[in-house]
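Please check our next protein.
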Amino acid sequence: MEAQVSPSKIGFRYGIIAAIISIIYSLILQLAGLASNQALSSLGLVILAIVIYLAHKAFKEQGDGFMKYGQGVSIGFIISLVSGVIGSIFMYIYISFIDDSVIQQGIDKAYQDLEERGMSDEEIEQAMQFTEKLMTPMFFLIVGIVFTIIAGLIISLIISGITKKENPQAV
């Protein structure tokens, strides 16, 4: 009897794959000085979408050829959770022990954004006091996990609608 493939097994396996790709991509952006480039950073979501799609494909190939919508969403959620936790822990370690300039880059970017909005010096100073309190490795860890899970869930909802394949013989 062939072992049945489960959404959690596929999700966990592909979550690790997504985390590894995400870590490598993040390192490339950091080392190239392009981490603050919004367009390149957003490419990480495209990578996540591709991994979720490939996981859905693997689930159907390793199973009976079918995948319910809920199974697809579950797979995507697990991928996002695993990838978000591993990737965010890596960034926490990276920021805490290897390169803390990421925090200063975030502060500088926030300051620049506030200036571009035309805020007064007083308003900028007030906003920056709050921003500097938030810009910690732990903040990056928490936001990274939450953002990856939410983005991955949205991506999963969309991709699952495309990749689902209901078994017509199932009741």
